[in-house]
Amino acid sequence: MTMWSAGVDEAGRGPVLGPLVVGAVAIPTKDLHMLVDHGIRDSKDLTHTKRLELVNWFHLNADQRGWKHQLIECMPPRIDAAVMNNGLNLLEVELFAEALNPIRHHVGEGVSILNDACDVNAQRFTDRIAARLTDWPWNNSTMSSEHKADTNHAIVGMASILAKVRRDEIIDALESEIGYPIGSGYPSDPHTKAALPALLKGKTPHDALRWSWKTVKREWNALHGEDPPVRRFTDKKQRTLFGP
Fold this sequence. Notes:
Low-confidence stretches: none
Number of helices: 9
Helix content: 40-55%
CATH topology of the largest domain: Nucleotidyltransferase, domain 5
Order of helices and strands: EEHHEHHEHEHHHHE
Oligomer: single chain
Shape: globular
CATH architecture of the largest domain: 2-Layer Sandwich
Strand order of the largest sheet: 5-4-1-2-3-6
Number of domains: 2
Mean pLDDT: 94
Structural class: alpha/beta
CATH superfamily of the largest domain: Ribonuclease H-like superfamily/Ribonuclease H
């Protein structure tokens, strides 16, 4: 029986605009050394060019060696709904579970899962994900969560790279659609700061913004003299991308 190793991480928890993307990677455990040998690490430690190079390398091996990955794109309306209800930590629990559930159908059993913990209590994060996985525990499978797992474990670093590159692609497409620079989406980014007034000039904030963010509330109030409207959210399935 082939034993598998899986890693899960997110990109885009903090930005004021654009999605939060969760990536899951699963490869045969015997191939883990390839990630280490190829210099896979946390996406934040890599240049944009290097991340693209590593994503292409991953897809090449996915075709040749059967590596798997899953991407979940969580858009701002769902993020805002989470902030108003159960909070971002539980949202990320849901998204990690959504990324992991299809893994079982593609690799079977014998999976060692490692999550980058998005909760100060790593065991609680694991337990909450486990409660949302279909038929967990899977045969011959284990799951744990660690803080800074994306830095310390190549399998989680690869998941972070895939998630980051996908989020960047979405932001680039959004910028082309809007027609002016919007930056990375982080509140500290000068381009994002400069774009906010135009993104807030309508009757409601732009759809790509996270209306529940303090930055949006502050800027909206400065422009309109009142708090922004409460966003309505219909619980539709988020876009899911699965690759070989």
